[in-house]
Structure to design on (1187 residues):
């Protein structure tokens, strides 16, 4: 027997070899039968999108971000520093400044005279949150909000700072926060874009807002923010052309989709599919949008709550009201920008006007969400791209002063959506220049926002240019202390 | 035997190739449904290789007891058969593994299983006895491991140690001794890994109360009622870099809450047997324990016990108007939101019957829902959040939802519900929030509700504190300000039920002025603007807003241009833009109602008024400036007239210098040209800008 086996092994000739090969190929072929996509080519990017997948269950489903563009002064809003009033006109000590770089506007200034808020502060609500008299309505809802007084950022000028706040990078070309959320969570209401943008302008010194801030960057173009205009038709070109009815439109779009599918079969460009999807969504938006953007049917007390301005298209108040309606209808991310907060001079004259524009409507938005039972699942974020200096820019007089850009410390507030209500987080020194407790970087803010939306900021990635990108890039920690 | 040898070696090769293929393309392989039963037979088949391998091992010890020839034969046969069953069991296992998401345990089980299969296959080639034995024994050990992990998969990872662990995982409640329920778990997690019976660092064993009482090398672990002097806490309080800090740097540290609890327990007397019920009501330790118990309770409540819904069912229910989404991959709970009043059908709700059990949140705000839908909602027993804001439900309809006994949040804002909802709320013991803003429930009734249901938070929303706001001015709904003699203008307001009052004589309007009721006709002879103001009860009157209107004049039948203007990417061409009676708006080049001309492509238009031309006395030429334009752009403007298109005579012209000018904001300019009253069929307008300037024209009027 032993011998037989031995000989048998010796007899492995060409025929045996080929026979065995056939077995091997057969085995592999058998296995390949179980791979359905083997001959279908590489998957499209679309197939790989993790739409609608949350990493863990959470409360917040939607975000309304009230970006106060131009950077409102934290020292006249939420960060109360009475010491600055005591030290009026004294020079900022170098020990505090610690070589902080300055903008071109104050770099040549000989001295940096400290100046305190000309507006009084009071404590409000059960939480005893400090709010300046410029924001009487926000002061009424302090028990619903969480003020973060220890925000800090990397950039010192408007455009990079705003781009940083929106996209996590000072340079453009990265997806905006809303696009990331649209990518990560998809749309809640498929008749509306997942990411909408509303612009308004106050009377103060304005800074530019560009469409790169709501760009989809390298993500699929379906995740781009859709800007709603201030005109009677908030979304342009949504109506059917004269003489075309809904049924005809649908037929036309169906045929167009067929043609586009042919194009896709030929070129395989995933953007063709996004285009088809966008046409179809636009068709559904034709009925959904007028229902939402018609503000005239809001009851009287709602108008009063947001202020009479809420009926004038393009104002901050009407944008807040529209934001509520969009969010209520399932828009994942509503981004507002209100320009005019850049008070380098004449702060005393201009900031009250800006505050008047936004105070009532911001507070109304939060109250309105609350009374509909939506505040729990909607995260409202209010704040600018950086803070303002504790010293005066230009000539300091008894009743006129201005403040320059200050990236080292500023305030923001959040409400609803799993945030610990009625709290203040973080502390600055008694001159309001440096953070002394619990700093929150913009990357941390992003990580926290994603966490509240049920996403792990380290897992929400997109491969581009050979590496995986995140909103927080390689930074960011979730600020657990402000989670409810 | 030879035939068997050849068949089996070929088959084994085939199966192992197949196995390699499966492993390489694991991520793209999908098992058809008819193969799945084969995979599920893995737990049955796997006993063969296990038994055979054990047999091979036993046989290897019995070699000397059996005559060599028989041994060879039996062993050979057995090895082939073992390899055969092993590879089959492994392939089946792979099939089975593809049905579910991999866990760490499964990955271990899988790879060790694969290793076993290849080891045994390798065995069929080995002649050398020592190598054969080594490989066989390694294979045997691997079988033990993979078998153990596999058992873990079917029976649970700690199946074997479960009976032992059971003693420890007792239900924690107020009667559990605080040491067992709260103190020991902390010490077990943070201390015992270094201070146990085997590894007694500092001669300290912290596995039981008695052992801890013995203390360690440095003496007692704690001094009863004196946490400050107890070395357990003293060590924890030392700075982390300190050599004697415990737990040592790099190990998991005690949290401040845990330290608080330990010191409270020592402060109370470090008693092994004491329970929460033994403690006086406001004892510091008692308060800590109570709050811990509460979090444990809450965690228990959060877990849903119902099954996951079928993924396919969820997908089938998704449509553009209905969002059906699982709260998270690890939770069976489902949120449902239905959108769009116009596109809504009742089936959108009633179709959800397949996921009845899993729906915990349902948002139907703004939808016109009927009785059937309400009845459907009553069958959702796990429902926690129900938003019916601004739907048409009334108190009577809500009777049905009594059965949703898990409801926590109920949104009824803007519905017709009234104070009679109280008896319904009684059936909903878990309610936390009820949203009744904007309903007919009066403030008094709300007070009664609040006193009756103390655990429910009634959200009544924003109540206007009588603050009065100023109205915005009336708006011109008809928009057009250049009108035909027969045209009406329409005023309006965005806010409902606003009174609009106006004057036409230039006087200030007030509350006694004419009330606007219907669209108006304009008297162009009256040059005064229409002054409007808005009034409403409980609002301050608006600012006064003036509206001026101008006459359209005569519209030519035909209007032809030599050059169509430079910017024809706008919606129309110059031949329509210039006589469309729509003003260009603020600043030229900012809207599509402007036509642009240059020195070369200047304005040269002929208006044809047909066979019966009107009397024309006046031509108004309306043009504009760019935002940053400082100098006059128009160089020459000419009006020609005549009966024959090719033979017109110049009747009026104006020349302008290229001077600096100040223009009002908006940049609109107008030139009125009085011409001798004439009844010509053709009028030619020529407008030439200065060199390098552009001429922006929005309208030409003929009166």
């Amino acid at each position: 027997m032993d011998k037989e086996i031995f000989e048998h092994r010796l007899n492995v000739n060409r025929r045996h070899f080929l026979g065995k090969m056939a077995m091997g190929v057969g085995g592999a072929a058998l296995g390949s039968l179980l791979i359905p996509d083997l001959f279908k080519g590489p998957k499209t990017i679309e197939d790989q999108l993790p739409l609608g997948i949350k990493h863990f269950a959470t409360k917040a489903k939607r975000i309304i971000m009230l970006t106060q563009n131009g950077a409102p002064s934290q020292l006249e809003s939420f960060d109360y520093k009475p010491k600055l009033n005591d030290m009026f006109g004294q020079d900022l000590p170098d020990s505090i400044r610690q070589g902080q770089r300055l903008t071109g506007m104050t770099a040549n200034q000989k001295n940096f005279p400290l100046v305190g808020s000309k507006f009084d502060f009071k404590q409000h609500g059960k939480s005893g949150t400090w709010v300046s008299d410029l924001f009487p309505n926000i002061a009424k809802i302090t028990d619903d909000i969480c003020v973060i007084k220890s925000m800090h950022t990397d950039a010192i000028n408007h455009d990079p700072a705003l781009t940083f706040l929106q996209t996590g990078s000072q340079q453009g070309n990265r997806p905006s926060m809303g696009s990331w959320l649209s990518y990560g969570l998809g749309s809640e209401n498929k008749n509306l874009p997942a990411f909408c943008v509303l612009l308004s302008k106050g009377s103060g010194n304005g800074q530019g807002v560009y469409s790169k801030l709501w760009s989809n960057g390298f993500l699929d173009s379906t995740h781009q923010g859709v800007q709603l205009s201030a005109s009677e038709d908030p979304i342009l070109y949504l109506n059917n052309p004269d003489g075309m009815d809904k049924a005809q439109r649908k037929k036309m779009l169906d045929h167009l989709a067929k043609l586009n599918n042919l194009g896709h079969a030929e070129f395989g460009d995933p953007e063709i599919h996004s285009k088809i999807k966008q046409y179809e969504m636009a068709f559904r938006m034709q009925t959904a949008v007028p229902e939402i953007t018609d503000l005239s049917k809001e009851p009287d007390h709602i108008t009063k709550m947001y202020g009479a301005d809420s009926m004038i298209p393009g104002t901050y108040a009407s944008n807040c009201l529209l934001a509520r309606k969009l969010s209520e209808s399932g828009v994942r991310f509503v981004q507002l920008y209100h320009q005019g907060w850049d008070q380098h001079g004449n702060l005393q004259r201009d900031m009250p006007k800006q505050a008047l524009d936004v105070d009532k409507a911001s507070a109304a938005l939060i109250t309105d969400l609350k009374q509909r039972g939506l505040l729990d699942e909607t995260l409202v974020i209010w704040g600018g791209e950086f803070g303002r200096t504790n010293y005066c820019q230009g000539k300091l007089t008894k009743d006129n002063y201005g403040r320059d850009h200050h990236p080292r410390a500023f305030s923001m507030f959040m409400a609803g959506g799993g945030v610990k209500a009625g709290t203040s987080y973080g502390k600055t020194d008694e001159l309001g220049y440096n953070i002394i407790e619990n700093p929150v970087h913009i990357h941390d803010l992003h990580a926290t926002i994603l966490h509240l939306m049920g996403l792990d900021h380290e897992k929400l990635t997109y491969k581009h240019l050979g590496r995986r990108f995140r909103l927080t890039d390689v930074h960011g920690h979730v600020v657990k202390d402000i989670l409810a | 035997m030879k035939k068997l040898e050849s068949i089996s070696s070929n088959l084994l090769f085939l199966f192992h190739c197949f196995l390699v293929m499966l492993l390489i393309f694991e991520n793209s392989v999908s098992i058809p449904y008819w193969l799945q039963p084969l995979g599920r037979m893995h737990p049955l088949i796997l006993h063969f290789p296990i038994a055979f391998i054990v047999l091979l091992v036993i046989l290897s010890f019995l070699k000397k007891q059996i005559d060599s020839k028989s041994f060879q034969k039996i062993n050979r046969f057995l090895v082939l058969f073992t390899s055969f069953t092993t590879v089959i069991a492994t392939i089946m296992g792979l099939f089975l593994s593809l049905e579910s998401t991999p866990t760490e345990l499964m990955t271990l089980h899988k790879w060790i299983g694969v290793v076993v299969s290849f080891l045994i296959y390798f065995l069929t080639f080995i002649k050398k006895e020592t190598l054969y034995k080594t490989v066989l024994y390694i294979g045997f050990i691997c079988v033990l491991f993979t078998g153990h992990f596999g058992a873990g998969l079917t029976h649970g990872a700690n199946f074997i140690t479960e009976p032992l662990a059971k003693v420890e995982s007792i239900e924690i409640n107020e009667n559990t001794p605080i040491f067992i329920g709260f103190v020991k778990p902390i010490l077990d997690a943070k201390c015992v890994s270094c201070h146990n019976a085997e590894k007694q660092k500092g001669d300290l064993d912290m596995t039981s109360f008695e052992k801890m009482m013995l203390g360690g090398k440095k003496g007692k672990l704690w001094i009863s009622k004196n946490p400050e002097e107890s070395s357990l806490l003293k060590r924890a309080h030392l700075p982390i870099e300190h050599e004697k800090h415990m737990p040592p740097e790099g190990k998991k540290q005690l949290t401040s809450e845990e330290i608080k609890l330990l010191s409270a327990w020592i402060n109370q007397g470090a008693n092994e047997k004491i329970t929460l019920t033994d403690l006086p009501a406001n004892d510091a330790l008692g308060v800590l324990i109570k709050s811990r118990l509460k979090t444990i309770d809450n965690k228990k409540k959060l877990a849903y016990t119902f099954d996951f819904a079928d993924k396919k069912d969820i997908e089938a229910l998704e449509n553009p108007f209905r969002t059906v989404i699982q709260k998270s991959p690890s939770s069976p709970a489902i949120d449902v939101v239905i959108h769009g009043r116009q596109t809504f059908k009742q089936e959108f709700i009633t179709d959800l019957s397949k996921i009845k059990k899993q729906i915990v949140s349902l948002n139907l705000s703004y939808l016109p829902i009927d009785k059937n839908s309400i009845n459907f909602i009553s069958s959702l027993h796990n429902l926690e959040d129900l938003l019916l804001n601004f739907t048409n439900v009334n108190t009577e309809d809500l009777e049905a939802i009594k059965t949703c006994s898990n409801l926590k949040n109920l949104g009824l804002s803007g519905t017709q519900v009234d104070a009679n909802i109280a008896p319904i709320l009684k059936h909903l013991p878990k309610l936390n929030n009820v949203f009744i803003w904007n309903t007919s429930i009066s403030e008094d009734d709300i007070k009664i509700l609040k006193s009756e249901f103390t655990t429910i938070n009634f959200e009544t929303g924003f109540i206007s504190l009588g603050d009065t706001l100023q109205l915005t001015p009336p708006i011109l709904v008809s928009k057009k300000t250049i009108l035909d003699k027969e045209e009406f203008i329409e005023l309006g307001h965005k806010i409902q039920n606003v009174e609009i009052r106006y004057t036409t004589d230039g006087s200030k309007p007030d509350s006694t002025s004419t009330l606007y009721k219907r669209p108006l006709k304009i008297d162009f002879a009256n040059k005064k603007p229409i002054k409007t103001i808005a009034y409403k009860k409980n609002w301050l009157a608006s600012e006064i807003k003036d509206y001026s209107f101008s006459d359209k004049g005569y519209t030519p039948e035909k209007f032809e241009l030599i050059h169509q203007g430079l910017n024809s990417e706008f919606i129309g061409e110059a031949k329509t833009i210039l006589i469309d009676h729509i003003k260009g708006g603020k600043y030229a080049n900012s809207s599509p109602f402007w036509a642009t001309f240059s020195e070369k492509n200047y304005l040269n238009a002929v208006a044809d008024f047909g066979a019966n031309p009107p009397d024309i006395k006046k031509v108004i030429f309306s043009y504009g400036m760019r935002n940053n334009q400082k100098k006059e752009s128009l160089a020459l403007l000419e009006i020609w007239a005549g009966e024959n298109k090719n033979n017109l005579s110049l009747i009026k012209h104006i020349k302008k210098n290229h001077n600096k000018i100040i223009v009002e904001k908006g940049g609109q300019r107008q030139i009125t040209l009085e011409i001798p009253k004439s009844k010509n069929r053709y009028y030619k307008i020529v407008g030439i800008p200065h060199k390098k300037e552009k001429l922006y024209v929005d309208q030409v009027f003929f009166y």
Observations:
- Chain B has five domains: 2-155, 178-301, 320-459, 475-551, 558-702.
- Chain B has a mean pLDDT of 84.
- The longest strand of chain B covers residues 634-644.
- The domain at 475-551 of chain B is CATH 2.60.40 (Immunoglobulin-like).
